[in-house]
Write a structure and sequence with these properties.
By secondary structure, the protein is an alpha+beta fold. The chain is built from 8 helices and 14 strands. It has an 8-stranded mixed beta sheet with strand order 1-2-12-7-14-5-4-3. It has a 4-stranded antiparallel beta sheet with strand order 6-13-8-11, with no helix packed on it. Strand 9 and strand 10 form a beta hairpin. The structure holds 2-oxoglutaric acid.
Length: 298
């Protein structure tokens, strides 16, 4: 791959502030991405429910960097959460933020509008149903046991990967994104609202990769780990039923392949930090998560 053409100082401050950055463009087709950058033969086991997440499962989280739970939300809460999300997209965003992949004036039908939404964020402050998911006492208890102290919700988003071409989220560490760059680990909770399966872009993880600490990210197809630095051979896929959730360490290498199926793939993603955490300073962020100091190329 070619040298990053972006101004490094500007890139680092934009990323640290949570802004979008210009990417180099697509060099692989979605089909190539799906087969070359992901594996589908090893699948994570599921723990039944949040009640089953005892000390042994917390130890497993610490060792592997993740655990997956089959039922975090029951069927009724899944339906209500999807309805709440669709109301934000179609009725009234109420101050939440919606990211479209196409200009809105080109979206003529309801279906076109829904399929063009990639992300809805900051919904917790405006929607009660979704707020109740983020502050679910049993979910918070698991996060508290993982962190070993009181969790603080620091980010809430919904990620929609539409049928027939919803794009990949390349391999990355969540803490490499400025708003999550804290001095202590953050915990991500990714909750499937539709079934997240091998063919519609479920989560994929590299077990134990959180132990590597922060690694440099590059502006390629997204803010991501260089494709050649991903241990694809260790990929474990995490298919989930609706209402199932992945709890994962903020430095775990993870990604999602494109959705080439005819099915929707909608998910909520919540991030929690320790109450005592502080953000790393921009220079520290630059040293850990970028190549600005080493000039190592992707
Ligand atoms: O839901 C997805 O496709 C990817 C989610 C993710 O890893 C992220 O946004 O950090």
């Amino acid at each position: 791959m070619s040298t990053n053409p972006l101004d490094k100082e500007k890139l680092v401050s934009t990323l640290y502030d949570g802004g979008a950055v210009a990417m180099r463009g697509q060099e692989l087709t979605p089909e190539e991405i799906a087969v070359r950058l992901y594996k589908y033969d090893v699948v994570a086991p599921l723990i039944g429910s949040l009640d089953d997440v005892g000390p042994e499962k917390i130890r497993e989280y610490k060792e592997l960097g993740y655990i997956a739970v089959a039922e975090v939300l029951d069927g009724e809460r899944v339906e209500r959460s999807k309805e709440a999300l669709m109301n934000l997209i179609f009725e009234d965003a109420k101050g939440s933020k919606i990211q479209f992949t196409k200009p809105q004036d080109q979206l003529r039908s309801r279906e076109e509008r829904e399929l063009a939404v990639r992300k809805v964020h900051e919904y917790v402050k405006v929607d009660e149903t979704l707020r109740n998911v983020a502050y679910d006492p049993k979910l918070l208890e698991v996060v508290r046991n993982i962190l070993g102290e009181e969790p603080v919700l620091v980010q809430d988003m919904a990620l929609l990967k539409p049928p027939h071409g919803g794009g990949e989220k390349p391999w990355h560490q969540d803490m490499a994104y400025g708003p999550l760059a804290y001095d202590k680990p953050v915990v991500g909770v990714w909750i499937a609202l539709d079934e997240a399966a091998l063919d519609n872009g479920c989560m994929h993880v590299v077990p134990r990769s959180h132990m590597d600490g922060g690694v440099p990210h590059y502006a390629v197809r997204d803010w991501q780990i260089c494709d050649t630095n991903v241990r694809v051979e260790c990929d474990v896929a995490v298919p989930l039923p609706p209402g199932g959730a992945l709890f994962f360490h903020g430095m775990l290498h993870h990604g999602t392949p494109p959705n080439q199926s005819a099915k929707r793939r909608r998910a909520l993603q919540l991030h929690y930090a320790c109450r005592s955490s502080v953000k790393v300073k921009p220079d520290e962020y630059k040293r850990i998560y970028t190549n600005a100091m080493t000039d190592a190329e992707c």
